[in-house]
């Protein structure tokens, strides 16, 4: 019988990692082509750096870090929105994880909180219900972030707020979609990416099917991969095998929880409350058509972006000139190419979002660079 | 924020929540996103307080067995 420990230790076993590295090297020796794998998600970036995977790979396999960190791709003006909303005397702003540390143009949400704004980081979106119930005289605004993985949780919160008639919860929606970001990366003539590792948790919700168009359009392999080091090594092996065989197919390494169709119930919940937004400006990538979600018209009474439109700034704000987050998110630069990496920009004092987020590429290089002796 | 963590269902509650064990840490999470009923002993993936999906025991077991075979085979080749 399988145990919980197997899910952790079994998929982190050093011996297995070492032997998978040997198999990868054997396969990679069969081709002279350069294999440039983009790991779309910051979770994979961290696995790759933390477990020293780069140094286990042959010289013709390279990793290019992708735009799949929701904190990293949030433009400054959206963080400014959150700050303005939180600055109202009758509001409480709630949000997830690292978002509170990302600098906007006038500071991070953490700084605004230290100045007296009621900003509450939460682990579970449903915690918002209790905050709203406990503060009936306040408007609680959920600053919603994340890719396909996190959107259903916002939908579930909205469903509960509606079902329980909790009227003092509003939403500022920043949910973004993976496939349009991949399109931006691949349609850049400078792109060198010729294979993808897709994040498993996105596909747990959306199914592996969301990458079919990437495979078809760009003739590149996509392997949906788990986050443990053995998962990543197996996915690399599957990519190299495809490359050697001259194939470009959609493959699912994480079949223990991902299906082609995904979690239909979660998808239906998302469809009920959300629709595709015409355009969304991504940090580093600029505006991308149809790349994000917004609330459906029948739920506009919950839309903080609409209700507070008269006080929200509309100016678009770019990153500091010295910061290379844009090129890093496009897969055109490595964190160590950036002149301020580790000097003006560190996790303690980040300039760019790739250093702020614990899943950002710069943060991973800063924390684990020595493990990999990464260049 | 993107870690989705394997956990074991240890208690089932009436309000569409279950208590899960994540390597010794217990916490209550929501089942609002899944339609299949959960049983004690099921393995699930958790993301920001929600069960996203079950983890298939059989598939996970098969993966682990495959890796064991790879290790055994490679060590045999190394010895020869």
Automatic annotation (TrEMBL), chain A:
<dbReference type="InterPro" id="IPR042244">
    <property type="entry name" value="HypD_2_sf"/>
</dbReference>
<dbReference type="InterPro" id="IPR002780">
    <property type="entry name" value="Hyd_form_HypD"/>
</dbReference>
<dbReference type="InterPro" id="IPR042243">
    <property type="entry name" value="HypD_1"/>
</dbReference>
<dbReference type="GO" id="GO:0051604">
    <property type="term" value="P:protein maturation"/>
</dbReference>
<protein>
    <recommendedName>
        <fullName>Hydrogenase maturation factor</fullName>
    </recommendedName>
</protein>
<dbReference type="GO" id="GO:0051539">
    <property type="term" value="F:4 iron, 4 sulfur cluster binding"/>
</dbReference>
<dbReference type="GO" id="GO:0070025">
    <property type="term" value="F:carbon monoxide binding"/>
</dbReference>
<comment type="similarity">
    <text>Belongs to the HypD family.</text>
</comment>
<keyword id="KW-0479">Metal-binding</keyword>
<keyword id="KW-0408">Iron</keyword>
<dbReference type="Pfam" id="PF01924">
    <property type="entry name" value="HypD"/>
</dbReference>
<dbReference type="GO" id="GO:0005506">
    <property type="term" value="F:iron ion binding"/>
</dbReference>
From TrEMBL, chain B:
<comment type="similarity">
    <text>Belongs to the HupF/HypC family.</text>
</comment>
<dbReference type="GO" id="GO:0005506">
    <property type="term" value="F:iron ion binding"/>
</dbReference>
<protein>
    <submittedName>
        <fullName>HypC/HybG/HupF family hydrogenase formation chaperone</fullName>
    </submittedName>
</protein>
<dbReference type="Pfam" id="PF01455">
    <property type="entry name" value="HupF_HypC"/>
</dbReference>
<dbReference type="GO" id="GO:0051604">
    <property type="term" value="P:protein maturation"/>
</dbReference>
<dbReference type="GO" id="GO:1902670">
    <property type="term" value="F:carbon dioxide binding"/>
</dbReference>
<dbReference type="InterPro" id="IPR001109">
    <property type="entry name" value="Hydrogenase_HupF/HypC"/>
</dbReference>
């Amino acid at each position: 019988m399988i145990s919980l420990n197997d899910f952790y230790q079994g998929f982190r076993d050093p011996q297995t990692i070492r032997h998978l590295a040997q198999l990868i090297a054997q396969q990679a020796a069969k081709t002279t082509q350069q294999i440039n794998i983009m790991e779309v998600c910051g979770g994979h970036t961290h696995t790759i750096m933390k477990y020293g995977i780069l140094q286990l790979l042959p010289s013709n396999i390279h990793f290019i870090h992708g735009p799949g960190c929701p904190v990293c791709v949030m433009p400054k003006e959206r963080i400014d929105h959150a700050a303005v909303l939180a600055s109202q005397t009758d509001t409480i702003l709630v949000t997830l994880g690292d978002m509170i540390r990302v600098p906007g143009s006038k500071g991070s949400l953490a700084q605004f909180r230290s100045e007296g704004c009621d900003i509450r980081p939460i682990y579970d979106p449903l915690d918002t219900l209790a905050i709203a119930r406990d503060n009936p005289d306040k408007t609680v605004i959920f600053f919603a972030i994340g890719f396909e993985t996190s959107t259903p949780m916002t939908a579930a919160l909205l469903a509960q707020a509606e079902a329980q008639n909790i009227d003092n919860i509003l939403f500022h929606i920043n949910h973004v979609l993976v496939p349009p970001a991949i399109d931006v990366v691949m349609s850049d003539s400078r792109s060198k990416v010729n294979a993808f590792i897709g994040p498993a948790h996105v596909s747990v919700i959306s199914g592996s099917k969301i990458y079919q168009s990437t495979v078809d359009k760009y003739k590149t392999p996509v392997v949906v991969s788990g986050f443990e080091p053995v998962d990543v090594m197996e996915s690399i092996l599957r990519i190299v095998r495809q490359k050697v065989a001259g194939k470009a197919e959609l493959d699912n390494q994480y079949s223990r929880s991902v299906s082609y169709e995904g979690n239909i119930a979660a998808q239906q919940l998302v469809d009920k409350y959300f629709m595709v937004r015409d355009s969304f400006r991504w940090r580093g990538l600029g505006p991308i058509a149809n790349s994000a979600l917004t609330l459906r018209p029948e739920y506009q009474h919950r839309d903080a972006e609409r209700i507070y439109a008269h006080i929200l700034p509309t100016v678009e704000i770019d990153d500091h000139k010295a910061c290379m987050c844009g090129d890093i998110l496009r897969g055109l630069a490595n964190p160590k190419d950036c002149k301020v990496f580790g000097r003006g920009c560190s996790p303690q004092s980040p300039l760019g979002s790739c250093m702020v987020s614990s899943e950002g590429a710069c943060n991973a290089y800063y924390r684990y660079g020595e493990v990999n002796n990464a260049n | 924020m993107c870690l989705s963590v394997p956990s074991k269902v240890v208690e089932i509650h009436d309000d569409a929540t279950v208590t899960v064990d994540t390597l010794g840490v217990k916490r209550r999470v929501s089942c609002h996103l899944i339609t299949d009923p959960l049983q004690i002993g099921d393995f699930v993936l958790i993301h920001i307080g929600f069960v996203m999906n079950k983890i298939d025991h059989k598939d996970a077991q098969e993966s682990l067995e495959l890796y064991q075979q790879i290790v055994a085979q490679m060590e045999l080749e190394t010895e020869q």
